[in-house]
Each structure stands twice: as C-alpha cells, then as structure tokens.
Write a structure and sequence with these properties.
Number of strands: 6
Radius of gyration: 16 Å
Number of helices: 4
Strand content: 25-35%
Order of helices and strands: EEHEEHHHEE
Structural class: alpha+beta
C-alpha cells in the first residue's frame, strides 16, 4: 500500500518488492523477509526520472497471498502488531522534523 508491490510472474514466481530511499528501512525489510525463510535481494537503483532508491525483492507464494488479501485482513494484522505497522507506515508516508520551540515534540510532515 506504500512503496511496496507484489507481482505474480509468468515463470511462477510470486514477487514481493519494496523501493525506498531509507537504507535502514530497506535493510530491516530484507532482514524480516530472511527471518521468514524468504531469500531477499537488497540493491540500489539509480533512476534519472525519480530519486535514487534502495530495493528489496523476495519471492514467496504464502506472503504474496497474504499481501493480496482483503484490506480488512491486513488491518487485522496492523492491530495485532501496531508498533511494527506504525513504524513502517511513518517511514513510508511521513517524514520527521523536530521543532526549535520544543525539541522533544515530533512533528510529522506528510
């Protein structure tokens, strides 16, 4: 729903892909795939039409089916793992900025 995509390839592979500018997030996603037993490829792409990005690719039919399921099913998982969901959501959809008035207050910029 953010910077990720899923594709069923003609060769029978079920591709899960993430493209982000945040290297740490890409590495964490690759590590998460690996912890599920999914071989992950981590790389960097330069694109003259977009910002250069890190990408992670893996192939797994079960994860593909989960990610292509209903939004309700995905929101159920977000409720079950709110910390992980919010971390991923904020990295993909927001940026952080500290204000000088109150450096302990975090302001999200969309």
């Amino acid at each position: 729903m953010g910077d990720g995509s899923i594709h069923k390839k003609s060769n029978g592979r079920y591709l899960i892909k993430l493209k982000v500018v945040d290297k740490e997030f890409a590495e964490a996603f690759a590590s998460s795939l690996e912890s599920l037993g999914i071989k992950a490829t981590l790389g960097f792409e330069r694109d003259s039409t977009r910002v250069d990005r890190f990408y992670v690719e893996g192939s797994n039919k079960t994860l593909f089916q989960l990610l292509s399921s209903s939004k309700e099913n995905l929101f159920f998982l977000a409720e079950k793992y709110p910390r992980e969901f919010l971390r991923g959501f904020l990295i993909v959809k927001g940026s952080q900025r500290y204000t000088q008035e109150n450096p302990l207050r975090l302001k999200l910029v969309w």
